[in-house]
Amino acid sequence: MTVLRSPAPVTTAESMFWLFLSLPFVFCLGPGTVVSQSSSTPLVVNGILWEPVTLPLQLPAKESVVIITWLHNGASIAVLQPNGRPGILVTNPAWQKRVNFTQSYSLWLNNLTEAEVGSYSAQMTTENSVIFSNYTLRIFRRLRNLQITSHVQLSENRTCEIHLTCSVENPNDNAWLRWQTPGNTSLSEPNLTISWDPRNDSEHNYTCIAETPANNLSLTVSARGLCEGIFNKENERWDFTWIIIMAPLISIVIIVGIIFWCKRRGSLHLSTQQTQSPVESMWNLEYTSGSPGSTVYAQVTHPSREKENLAPVKNNESVTIYSTVNHSKESKHISSRTTALDNVI
Model confidence over 159-173: pLDDT tens digits? Predict the structure, then answer.
């Protein structure tokens, strides 16, 4: 757990006291004093805008530090006295509410703004030397709302063509967009084009990574998930096409079937009538009935033959046709002695 030490408000007299206390250690070092830096290269610290950051300070192990002075771009920010009566003096009033210090006297900056960008130094004065720790503070905006835009289409060989674009809501010059593809292959560009074959039936995931020196975001998409939609739409389109094609054909088949059924039913009805009375269909009969018990004479005319004057039949010759006449149930019973004689003219 890090404990922060806030600088206490000081009066003008205390400020002058601190100033005169630190001057001998800064300017009046003896001949054996060594001025050194803890590192030749400044430590680069990345901060996020409107968020806190800490510049870590490592105190010398074998020497007792008397005064620590923090500077920003060469100007003093605060003076700290680790030993004896510990005290913190903010020498620049503009930093009064913006700085705090940890137990190890590291500098803690709150709510970073663009004004805090630059070089920092911690000047540690011991009894025999002055040690500097140098820093470079960079500030970036936090990346937000990583998005992947996809455009999917079906190619002629039935493969799924996918065009992916990776973007963030607040891009800046320091943002780095890249793609992580199967096989841990990295592509350093925001756009990616891939082809996925559903017949291969393998799952391929693609990850978009947005990075800045301060933070990073990532988002993964599946090729199968992106292509399922277009294949479903393609199947729906073919289903609709088949409906359009088959509906008229089915209607035509139904209409033809009805017509054929009607014609077949009519021919069967006609055939039934012919079966029941073949004689009536071939001949035109004219019946003349006499009184009950008398002979029934019928004159038969052939439909395809014109009437001709036949030679008179002699008295001794006659042509007799015997036919059975079926009477309805309401007709009176005819005696078996009664016969029907048809004289053919």
Answer: 889 999 999 987 777
